[in-house]
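Can't paste images in this forum, so I'm doing it all in text. The chain is below; anyone willing to post the predicted structure tokens underneath?
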Amino acid sequence: MTAAQKTAALTIEGLRVSIGGHDVLHGVDLTLEAGRVHGLAGESGSGKTMTGLAVLGLLPHGSRASGRIAFGGRDLLEMPARELNEVRGAKIAMVFQDPATSLHPMLTVERQLTEHMRHHLGIGRKDARERAAALLAKVRIPGPEEALKRYPHQFSGGMRQRIAIAVALACEPEVLIADEPTTALDVTVQAGILRLLRGLCDDLGLAVLLVTHDLGVMSAVADEVSVMKDGLVVETGPRGRVLREPRHPYTRSLLDALPVPPGENSP
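Text version of the structure:
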């Protein structure tokens, strides 16, 4: 492991979130390391997505958060809104399950990529366009120059998700939160997106938080795995250990629920 891989890019300590007086996170602890994919697994409603939204300050109206989210020597929970806006999308970015939530249907791909960069990086139109084309090539969009002129609806679901990842990477963030990025995709396309995330993590030194309900997805790309239940992390460890030797009954139940490949039960 390199020195960069041992560096904590973001640390969550004792994160608690309540919405309308109802507690949804009960003291979450997580550490994301540069150059590593950290999988966060659990059933729907376990608090996975809420954890990612809390990092970006995107909690629902009426929410209250406490604890500590340390990034760059600062606590994001105590950061003024204006400063947090500069971190969000630039230093910490998020990819959502449905690219329709992050891609504007009426704007070209070029505009969505370049406006993001021009706002956060302060670069000119020409430089932003060149960077946008290079980003599309990096996420393996065929014909990136032509793709810039097109609209999201002109791409397949898998290509739209790749474009959403390009938008998230536009300002060279240090942390990428991927919230169920493959759930809406078929198995073949899903595998391609997971390979892309793994490659970007390795090539760019990103700290990636991969949020998913599917432990099978974790087994493909994660370095570490944390398992959430009822707003708490109940188990954390290296992927191989957690998936082969789970220590918490809930983790074992998730693994038992995975589909068994054909012939697996044959004598």
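The chain is about 35% helix and 25% strand. Residues 1-5 have pLDDT under 50 and may be disordered.
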